[in-house]
Amino acid sequence: MAKTTDVLKEYRYDGEKKLELGKVCHDSGGRDKEKDELLKKTDENLFEIDSLQEKLYAESKESVLIVLQALDAAGKDSTIKHVMSIVNPQSVDVYSFKTPNTDEAAHDFLWRYHKRLPERGKMCIFNRSYYEEVLVVKVHEFWKSYKMPDRTIHSGDYIKQKYKDIASWEKYLYGNGYRIVKIFLNLSKDEQKKRFIERIDRQEKNWKFSASDIKERAFWDNYQEAFETAINETSTKDCPWYVVPADQKWYTRYIVSEILAETLRNINPVFPELQPEAKAQLAECKKQLEAE
Question: Are 198 and 33 in contact (CB under 8 A)?
């Protein structure tokens, strides 16, 4: 595997170290003085992502799955909009997953996600993902009401088994040409409060707020434990997690741009090289066009 850049080592979890959410930064960690420089670097990363993604699409050997998880108001939508704004929309898919519908609930929990995996050469973003099974489902114990065999529900190990299922599935995907980039936008409780109040105060943002957001906020500590455990149980060298500070959006976007640029550099895609016969055919076509 290619070397991880120094800035990302701080946020990358690949199984070598344990995450303790209570001890990690929610902001830039004192890098405010570097803001102008990092904004410039973000723009440079975006152009590099666009260039490498075009090669990824042309080569069509690997694909990139970006798993984006966060609590409400952490900036998932704005991060997607900003970081992927420069990329050709033909080569990127974005899926936002809500509560499973009746058809989805009648299948295993990975079924609806497997159907949305990108084809080779494309990038795909899961705005929330299969990790909800060990996050909101765990916090609210929704799994206890599933229509499943007693051996599955009443064994006492349902969530522990889901960690294993997820890790095995990601290993399978990696072995089949997928690069999985898992990003947790780590928002502080104080900053979430500020953003909620802003959504209430500003009419153009009212639509983003729901009373259910306050109900979920009451489970803050439970979600922190759920995220911490999920990340520690599913972090591997091939499918690492990145715990990205989310209190300062400019810094969040910079780090996410670094993650995606590095992922594509590691893939190192190239434009396909034509065989001699194809090159000769191109030369002949050029002659015909010039002779018109």
Answer: no
Residue recorded with tokens 């306050």: 214
Tokens (6 digits) for 52 = 């490498």
Q: Which amino acid is at 180?
A: I
User: How does pLDDT run across 66-112, given as a tens digit for each residue?
Assistant: 999 999 999 999 999 998 878 888 889 999 999 999 999 999 999 99
Contact yes or no for 14/240 (Cβ under 8 A): yes
Burial category of 234 from C-beta neighbours within 10 Å (exposed 0-12, middle 13-18, buried 19 and up) = buried
| Contacting residues for 152 by C-beta, under 8 A, at least 6 apart | 146, 158
How would you classify the pairing of strands 123-127 and 92-96?
parallel
Residue with tokens 């991880």: 4
Q: What is the pLDDT of residues 185-201, one digit of tens each?
A: 999 999 999 999 999 99
Spatial neighbors of 245 by CB under 8 A, at least 6 apart, are: 11, 24, 25, 26, 27, 28, 29, 186, 251, 252, 255
Integer Cα distance of 178 and 175 in angstroms: 7
